[in-house]
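Give me the fold.
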Amino acid sequence: MNNSIKQASIYCILFVVTHFVNKYVLSVLKFQFPTIFQGWQTLVGFLMLSLLVSTRHLPSLMENVDRYDIANWLPGMVFFVCSIYSGSKALAYLSMPVFMSLHNLVTVMLCTGQLALYRQLTSIYSYVMLMIVVISSIFIGVSDPQYHRDGYFWMCVHVLSSGAYGIFSKISRGRLKLSPHEKMYCNYLYSVIVLAPSSYFLGDAVEAGKYPYLYFSKFYVGCIMSGIFGVFLSLSLIKLTESHLDKAEISKLSGISKLITSATSLLFFDTTLTANNTLWVSVNHLAAIAWEDSSNVEETTILPSATSSNHLTQQNTMTREFIKVTVQ
C-alpha cells in the first residue's frame, strides 16, 4: 500500500513539473517551433532510454522483436507524433486549466472506441460523468476569455490523435510482442526521424535562428529538463500500469494530477479566468475524476453482435442435424 502511494505521488509530481516546464518554454519563452522542440524532447528520451538500458535500470530492448511487430506498430508511432506535435501547438496558445480540462475528452474518445469495437456499454453513472465532460468542454470554449482559434484547433487534433493512439494500443495489445518500454523506444526513435527533416521542410529551423533567447542558458535548461521529465513521466506511468493499481485508480490519479496542475498553474503563469469559465473548468475536472473505467464496473453490458448471433444459429442447426442422424 505504501509503495503504491509512493508511486502515485511520484507520478503526480512528475506530471505537474513536466507540464510546467513545457508551458514555460512554449508560452513564457515563446519557443513555438514544435518540430524542433518535440524533436529535441524525443531525442533526449531516446538517449535516456538507451542510457537506462546500458546501466541495467531497464531490461534490454528490441532483442526478441522482429520487423513484423515493428511494422504493425507503425500506426501507433504516427499517432504518437501527431499527438505530441499538436499538443505542443495547443499548449502554446491555451491556458493550463483549459488545456487540462479539454484533454479529458480523450477519455470520452476511448470509451466511444470501446463501444464501437467491443460493443461494451458503460454504467449509467459513468455515462453521465462523460456527458458532463463533453458539455462542460463546450462551455469552456464558449466562456474562455483567452479564446484562441488556433489553440482550439490544435487541441481538437491532439484529442483525436491521442484517442486514436489509445484505441490502437488496446487493439494491438494481444497481437504484438512489443513491451511498453519497447513501444516507447520505437515512438521516440520514429519521432526523431520524422521531426528532424520536418523542421527544415516546415521552416521551423530557419525561424528558430531568429529566436531572441537562442543564446540564453534558461532556454537550454528548460529544453533539457522538459525531455528528461517527460521520459521519467512516461516510465512512471508504465510502472503504475504494471503495479497492482487497476485502470479506474490510474484514471482517477490522472484526473487528480490534471486538477492540481490547473490549480497551481495560476500561481506561476498569467491566466485570465472569469467566474463562468472557472465554474465549467471545475465541473469538467470533477466529472473526469468521478468517472470510472467501464472495464472495472459491474454494470458493464456487452451488446449482442450480428456475428455472434449467426454463430449461435449455425451451432444450433448443426446440433439439430446431429440429433436427427443419431436417432436414425
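Residues 294-328 have pLDDT under 50 and may be disordered.
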